[in-house]
Amino acid sequence: MLYDRLTCYFLSGTGNSYRAARWLTEAVAEEGTKSETVPIAVARPAVDLQKGARQLVGLYHPAHGLMPPWSMIKFILRLPRGRGAHAVVVSTRGAIPLGPVMIPGATGLALFFPVLVLLLKGYRVRGALGLDMPVNMLNLHWGMTERNAGRVVERAKRRHQRLVSAVLAKKHYWHPLNLIWELAWCIPFVFWPFFPIAYLLIGRIFMAKLMFADTSCKGCGRCARNCPCQAIKMVGAKPKTPFWTHRCEVCMRCMGYCKFKSVQASHLWLVPVLYGTSLLTASSLQWGLMILLDWPVQIVGLANRPIHYALTALALPLFYYLFFGLQRIKPLRTMFTYTTLTKLYRRRYHEPDTEAREMNRRSDS
Predict the structure, then answer these.
(1) Contacts for 59 with CB less than 8 Å, ≥ 6 apart
(2) pTM reported for the whole predicted model
(3) Which stretches does DSSP call E strand in the chain?
(4) What is the pLDDT of residues 242-280, one digit of tens each?
(5) Which of 46, 26, 47 shows the shortest CA–CA distance to 36?
(6) Collapsing DSSP states into helix, strand and coil, what is residue 330?
(7) d(Cα 114, Cα 173) in Å, to the nearest integer?
(8) Which of the 8 DSSP states describes residue 15?
């Protein structure tokens, strides 16, 4: 028996990272090792990780802005000391098939950050892999056809098998070209080190504040029950309407798995949000500092930008409350419904062999 236990922790929106995690647990279980796939929302690492060097730990997650999602970062930082336990890290990235060519995605620090933290905590990292899976940012583009998604998944499974083979042989797996590609995507951080923080803020207080349920929503609450971050609340009278809170990480599970295809991102609302926040926080702020406080132009120039960002962060939730309130007016909700691109192209994506409920519970193999 290779190990006494494999515990594979994952965070997944549309099922890509979950499916890859299952490939590992199923392969290791076939060798007679007790294996478990565990969503980080219900994980108990202090209890699970007690085998020391006889333990294998897996971390599987998507890349959000070339970093792990914020909930995954917090989970990794809270992991207990490794005491020599072996570990593998897989970060999934969005790939696009273009005829016979596969355009790869990028994970950047989403791959290297967990490796570094694990090493500092005393884990023995046996390998890391940036793994191409079907693109799933459904608020920005249409989902893949079943055929193309299947092509990407099959190719990913073959590549992931090399990592599995190394694990089963108790060897290291460090693919040089894969690592060089991901390192190249880390170079922009030298010039803009705050990009991951900026992306986190954009995702939470901007992209998440464009989400809504259109007129076809039945108020079933499936999106709220399956949300990995418990970021959706069902509010209002029957039928209740989903409300996306500040905890949303834009993982797209709600949009990918809604059986009525009701979950949308309002591209029409994007226009007043951009104009309104800029008008409220830029022009008024600048003139206020100069006229009311009699600040000189030089100081205004230095203070304007950080204060502008702070006020924008405060204004965006207020705009979302306004947006949510306007949806109670039926003609306006109909207008929002039929002016969003996600409604027009409609195609959704989730990992073909994965049901949403699978990703909410611990699974033995």
Answers:
(1) 8, 9, 10, 72, 76, 87, 88, 89, 90, 114, 118
(2) 0.89
(3) 5-10, 34-39, 55-62, 86-98, 101-103, 124-134, 173-174, 211-213, 232-235, 241-244, 263-265, 363-364
(4) 999 988 999 999 999 999 999 999 988 888 887 777 666
(5) 26
(6) helix
(7) 16
(8) S
